[in-house]
Design goal:
single chain, 351 residues, alpha/beta, 5-stranded mixed β-sheet
């Protein structure tokens, strides 16, 4: 990356210092720590267990086959999940026999999956974490307890490899359902609706996902839907050719650090995540509205159809009994609003 002028560096430092107040400081420090922790990818966040990671079952799963990219369009990708079922299967039984559910999550996304510095327990909290507990509680029933979940910190660009290698049973980490990803993993029905959005300093001349991005350096996470959209739209002439979209990082929160340091001019990420980042740092804000419609899903192995069906059954209950709404009100209402399109759980459709 080319060196910046002394003036630019001073501005970046000033912006960072301005963010080091209240939750802004927490956000900046958490993000900086995220960079330092990159070398411990997939490190278990709970007590380690001996004996290694047992392989997942799948040779005799319930009926149904995972959707392939050729069978869907991006507009219907969220409708490709197998119908819900409360039945067990080889994958679920393997998890029960092992004694815990291994889940890839984020530990630095404010109000989604993060460690609250005001919580002395140090336990992970957030909207995604609530859903993980609901899934584990259903799978283990009366045997459910904190020891039945093994959380693993998964950077954005390691979500799919972690599933395919069997390091985790599932990823619950603000992961968008797409046709391309359906060719690599299976997804549950959607549990959240969002869209891509621009985050930039309040003082920036950027107004949104438009011509004001000309000449600006934009950060996105590698393998993210944000980066894919930036590349496609620039090729199609929908955003200026002079916008520099070359910088990608392993974890989307790393982009906030770059923005705070003045190393980039804007971040493109999911609006739900961008709103949480803006809540952490009072010097940045959302610019313009969302310019895509996307849905988060729980990602699992392609042959774990019994687990996918079971998660879909859990999601049906989670939406219907008020737990989804209670979690939204607790974690996201303050940043996204009570009347936003995201405030209502998406309707599930199955293939």
């Amino acid at each position: 990356m080319a060196a910046r002028s002394d003036v630019s560096r001073l501005r970046g430092v000033a912006r960072l210092r301005a963010g080091l107040k209240g939750w802004g400081g927490v956000g900046a420090m958490a993000a900086l720590c995220a960079l330092a922790l990159a070398f411990v990818l997939l490190l278990p966040l709970t007590q380690s267990r001996g004996g290694g990671e047992p392989g997942l079952g799948g040779s005799g799963v319930a009926q149904g086959a995972p959707a392939r990219a050729g069978q869907c369009s991006e507009g219907t990708a969220q409708d490709q999940s197998p119908a819900p079922s409360s039945a067990s299967g080889d994958t679920i039984e393997a998890i029960r026999k092992r004694g815990y559910l291994s889940v890839g999550v984020d530990q630095n996304s404010y109000r989604w999956g993060y460690r609250n510095p005001n919580n002395p327990s140090g336990e992970l909290e957030g909207f995604d974490i609530d859903l993980v507990h609901a899934i584990a509680r259903n799978i283990f029933g009366d045997d459910y307890g904190a020891d039945k979940i093994q959380f693993r910190a998964i950077p954005t660009n390691q979500r799919i490899p972690a599933i395919q290698s069997g390091r985790v049973d599932m990823v619950v980490r603000t992961m968008t359902i797409t046709c391309d990803r359906l060719n690599q993993v299976s997804f549950s029905a959607p549990y959240f609706r969002t869209g891509q959005q621009v985050l930039a300093p309040k003082t920036s001349t950027i107004k949104g996902y438009d011509r004001t991005l000309a000449g600006k350096k934009i950060c996105s996470a590698a393998t993210s839907t944000a980066h894919d959209r930036l590349a496609a739209d620039q090729q199609a002439g929908k955003i200026p050719a002079t916008a520099d979209i070359s910088l990608t990082v392993p974890n989307q929160l790393d982009c906030l650090v770059r923005l705070q340091l003045g190393q980039v001019d804007a971040v493109v990420t999911d609006g739900a995540l961008a709103a949480s980042q803006a809540a952490q740092d009072p010097t940045v804000q959302l610019k313009g509205g969302t310019f895509t419609t996307e849905y988060y899903g729980v990602a699992m192995k392609q042959d774990a159809t019994d687990l996918v069906r079971r998660v879909n059954r859990i999601l049906e209950d989670y939406r219907g009994d008020g737990d989804w709404k209670a979690s939204y009100d607790k974690w996201l209402s303050a940043t996204l609003g009570k009347d936003s399109e995201s405030a209502t759980p998406p309707t599930a459709h199955y293939k």
